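forwarding from the other thread:

> can someone predict this with 2'-O-acetyl adenosine-5-diphosphoribose?

sure thing
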Amino acid sequence: MGDLSKIETVVNWLQSSKKTVVLTGAGMSTESGVPDFRSASGWWTKTDPQQVATVDALESNYPLFHEFYSMRIQLLDKCSPHKGHYILADWEKRGILHHIATQNVDGFHSKAGSRKVDELHGSIYTFRCHSCGRDASKEAFLAKERCAHCQGCLRPNVVLFGEMLPENAWRSALSNIQSADVVIVIGTSLEVYPVNQLPMMTKGKKVYINKEAASHASYFDCILEGKAKEVIMELDDRLIG
Ligand code: OAD
């Protein structure tokens, strides 16, 4: 749970901010039942990302790549946004929040009703051929079909290590963060470049919401240590308007 005086400080910043941007990572969705990557129960403690989440993995061991992403897609089909996602969407409608940039590929912010969302690491719900780039269906990917046009390997539209981030999403996130009065960073270890550079790009107040926040203590103007959903609910309880 966030410390009460810190919660009040952040609420004051939010109420006087003309532009607030949220940047989320996998910790935003763990309370929906989706594992993150680097916590004790995260994907990368069981699986080496080099073996499944790189261009080389896709090209040199497609069966393992396919198994990993199929498993994640099937798990996500059973999960849905939680109250924290819905509160952020409500803040957008109320003019409290202006933009979300996310590393998450689960689409939960949009599912909860947020409209201004930059998916910096792509989406796991749309698919293409890795060779010719043509769109493909989820069913074709899950059935391990080859591209109908060129026989290439099908893949989700997620960003793999070694690939560029989607340019429009990156530009939008960067310019929104640069011009923000408040940036709230939620549930990310900030281990992965280049998204981990984004919080440094603002002149606004920087807030970090994370269940284990110690390693970033000196960098943020305020740290609310706790679970994303609970801290967002605490902030929401005190926001007026
Ligand atoms: P990480 O797993 O690296 O970090 C998640 C952070 O959220 C950790 O600091 C956790 O302590 C924290 N956390 C977990 N549950 C939480 C909760 N309920 N409330 C608050 N904090 C919580 O995930 P990301 O930083 O998102 O990229 O990882 C960045 C990228 O690395 C991912 O997009 C993915 C991964 O490799 C690719 O695959 C390209």
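The radius of gyration is 18 Å. thats all i got for now
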